[in-house]
Amino acid sequence: MRTPVTIIGAGLGGLTLARVLHVHGIPATVYEAEASPTARAQGGMLDIHDYNGQLAVRAADLMEEFRGLVLEGRQAMRVLDREGTVLFEKADDGTGGRPEVQRGELRQLLLDSLPAGTVRWGHKVSGTRALGEGRHEVTFADGSTVVTSLLVGADGAWSRVRPLLSTDIPEYTGLSFVETYLYDADTRHPAAAKAVGGGSMMAHAPGRAIHAHRESGDTLHTYVLLPRPLDWFAEIDFTDAAAATARIAREFDGWAPELTALISDGDTPPVLRPHYALPIEHRWERVPGVTLVGDAAHLAAPNGEGANLAMLDGAELGKALAAHPDDVEAALAEYEQALFPRSAEVAAEGVGSDEIMFGDNAPHGLVSMFTEFIGQEHAQ
Fold first, then answer.
1. How confident is the model at residue 287 (pLDDT cuts 50, 70, 90)?
2. Half-sphere exposure for 249 (CA within 13 Å, toward CB)
3. How far apart are CA 168 and CA 151, in angstroms?
4. pTM over 0.85
């Protein structure tokens, strides 16, 4: 293939695409707004699934290196009630298909697998425009531009490439996370560490939940889940860490202290993470020379599949381009034909989960769901 690929965004989807293209000898350049790979924290743990994310890793020819990142035992999970009673537990016996890795380490693995200079850091996109005949111009915040015959938007929820294809704008889902960390938990916060266990923990009650993951070492990464309108959060001053922590903790008055400690004893300021989504059936008519991967294409409510789908998108697009070296449009059409139903199916799976997660029967509906899922796995 003679057409170089211009990728906007050095997240997991864009980097997987660049790596798969490199494996097939196709040149690509990735433009990233961040100043460097370490400009900001890359988030916590990811479970990389054997039916999508790991397929992308294989397509990138990085499976052996990926296995070196896996944190043993982290597939263990448990569901608690507000009193801290364990209602459901599944140990990590090493046979699960969702090994856990640190997002930052996975991203660095992909970066290290690319030729030097592939990623151009500090290139924040300010706009894009069509030039005709499949060519597009990308303008960066510093005033520089690049013209390309094959543009891929891998630039996330608020993609600057998406408007070339779609007028849809993400809308608030009604759910926000508040994120914090506990460090040296086994020694400094032993009760909270015991409650979380060796992998992930979910504690639910009607209208609220606390999720926590054990990351590398004895770091606990906590997400407080609150289905509240944005106006509710706007009344909290998150620049005042102590006041914000106290306000969020009040939503869990009466809960077991080992659970509320995950909030009130946090070693980092609480960070608000509101969740947005595109329409479930988000799609676009084929536009020559441009397409999307990951959240830019199918931003959805949190369902554990976002990173996996982004990587699979990148891998599938890379393979399609390699399979049609002399017909870019055929490659893009083939990719999108599979992309649209795949992403819509996953997004639809999350619809209606609010009642299970936060309804009057929480956490027992969640326990029933996991028990049924485990039963289906054993029956296969």
1. very high
2. 20
3. 19
4. yes
